[in-house]
Amino acid sequence: MVSIHGLEYQEREWCEGFLSSLRRGTVAGIVDRIPPAWGVPDAGRAALVEQIVRRAAFVATRIHNGWPLDGRTDSPVAATPNP
């Protein structure tokens, strides 16, 4: 099994699938559970949902395109055979 950046191929595949399937409604439901005592205004909650959803999609795409998340283009995963 090939390990790149501490993640096995199947783990990267799972992460990509999870992140690409993350839906706005799911994230909004989680954010709605932030306690009112924390003082997060509606605009802040909306921004948090947007950030999480967009970031999840971005990271899923990065994983799909061969990793790495640090912006390098010399990813060793791109040459990794699909087991």
Helix/sheet category: mainly alpha
The whole-angstrom Rg is 16 Å
Number of strand elements: 2
State the end-to-end distance: 8 Å
Question: How much of the polypeptide forms β-strand, as a percent range?
Answer: under 5%
Detail the topology: elements first, then pairings:
Elements: E1 3-4, E2 7-8, H1 9-21, H2 24-31, H3 42-64
Antiparallel strand pairs: 1-2
Provide a concise account of the structure shown.
The protein has 83 residues and is mainly alpha-helical. Helices cover 53% and strands 5% of the residues. It has one domain.
Provide structural commentary.
This protein is mainly alpha-helical and 83 residues long. The chain has one domain. It is 53% helix and 5% strand. It is built from 3 helices and 2 strands; from the N terminus they run ββααα. Strands 1-2 form a two-stranded antiparallel sheet. Strand 1 and strand 2 form a beta hairpin. Helix 2 (24-31) packs across helix 3.
